[in-house]
Amino acid sequence: MKTIILAALLASSAVAHTIEGTLVLRGELKGETLVSGTKTKCGVKVNKVKNDLQEDDYGNPAYQVQVKVSLDGKKIELDKDFVLSNLFVRGTRKVVEDLVYESKDGLVMNIDADGRIKSVVVPYKATKVTCAF
Amino acid sequence: MLAKAMSVFLLAFLAIQASGVQAAESIYTTVFNVMKSSKSDRLLLLSGADGRVYKMKKSDDNFRLLKAYTGQVVKLTFELKAVDGKEEKEAMIVAIKRASAAEVNPRELDLNHFQYNQLRQFAPSDLQSTEKLGTLFENMMNDGDRTRSQCFKRAHMWAYDLWSQLGINSQKVFIFYTRRYIDLEDFEWWFHVAPLLVAGGEEYVMDGTFMKNPVTLDHWQKFFIKSEKITCPVVERYNDFKDNQWSRLCYLMKVPMYYLSPLDIENRDTKGELKNHWVLEELQDARRAFKNYDETYEALDTGKETKTY
Fold it and tell me: Model pTM?
C-alpha cells in the first residue's frame, strides 16, 4: 500500500509543472556579433510585454512579447518586428516556459531569471544569427 | 360536542387569518441591540439568534423594558402582522422574558451570531435544487447604483439578508487579481466579491450588480478575467495569493459569509483572527451600499458614528 501511495506521489510530482512567471524587462539592448566573419551590430528593443490570456495544460499563463530586432553589417541588414510567446507544445502537452520565447517565424529569445535578455537567435534567410548580451 | 369545538376553532382561525395576524411563535435569542425607530412608532430589537428585527409599539416603558434585556438571553414571543396592507409583515413582540438556565443550554443553542463562538461550525446551506435561486436573486436588495459603494459592502448585505431573512448560510467568493494581471492589463481592481450559494450540487454566484441572474462560478470567473482560456485556481490561504503574484493572473477564495473584506481573510491567515459571527459596526457601514439604508436597515445602527471599513 505504501509503495502505491509513494508511486502515486512521485507520478503526480513528475507531472506538475509550475512557473515563476518571470517578466521580460522592457528596454533596448545593443551588441555585436559575427556574421560569416564580419562584425555586425545587433539590437533588440522590447516594445511590449502582455499576458497572452492563454495557459498551458497545468494552468500556467503565457506571456506575449513584442520586440524589434535589428542587424546591421556589411553582409546583412534587418529591422523587423517579432511577436514571441513562451507557450510551447512539448510532445502532447502545452507547456509555458519561464526563460525561453519563440516567434512563429523562428526568432528564439532566452532570458535570465531576472527577466534580462541573454540572447536572441534571429532567422535570416537560410541562416540563423545569434546575438548574445 | 366535538363538531362545536371544531367550529369554534375554525371561526377563531378564520378571524386570525382575516386580521392578517398569524399565530404567535416563540424563539430563544440574545437581545443584541434595542433602539427607537426614527422612521416609525416602533421600538426595534435586533435578535442575536437569527438577525431578525422584532418590533414593539414605541413608548418609554416599552423601551425601558426591552433595553433592560440587552445582552440577555430571552424567550421572545411574537406575531407576524401585516403593515398597512403591505405584503411585508412585521414581527411584533407579544411577550418577552428572561430565559432560565434550564431552558437554554448555550452548548446546544446558538443564540448570538454577533459574537464569536468557538463551538459554532460554519456549514454552507445546500439549497438542493436551483428552483429558488432565481427568486432569491430577484429579491436581493439592488438599487442599480454601484457607484454608491464597493462590492464587498454590497456582498456583505446580500449575505446578511440571506441569513437573517431566510436562514441561508452563504459563502463569499473573492476573485483576486495578481500584480501581473493588474500591471499588464492596466486594470484598476485588485479583487471583487459576491455571495456564493450551493444548489443542486453546483455553486452559483449571486452577483446582483454585474449579473442578471445567478451564474456558475466558472461563468463568473471568466466574466471577470475577460477570457475563456484562463483559469483562476481556488486557494485556501491568503498567502497563496499574496506570495504568487506573477505565476498566475488571478485566484479564487471561498470564505464564510461573515468575512467582509480581504483584510479579514489576511488577518485570519496571518493573525489567527477567526470570524464566525457578524460585526454590527461592519453592517452599519455596509448597509450604506443601498439607498434608503437607514430605513431598510435601521436596526443595524450602533448609535455611534459610522466607521468606514
Answer: 0.88
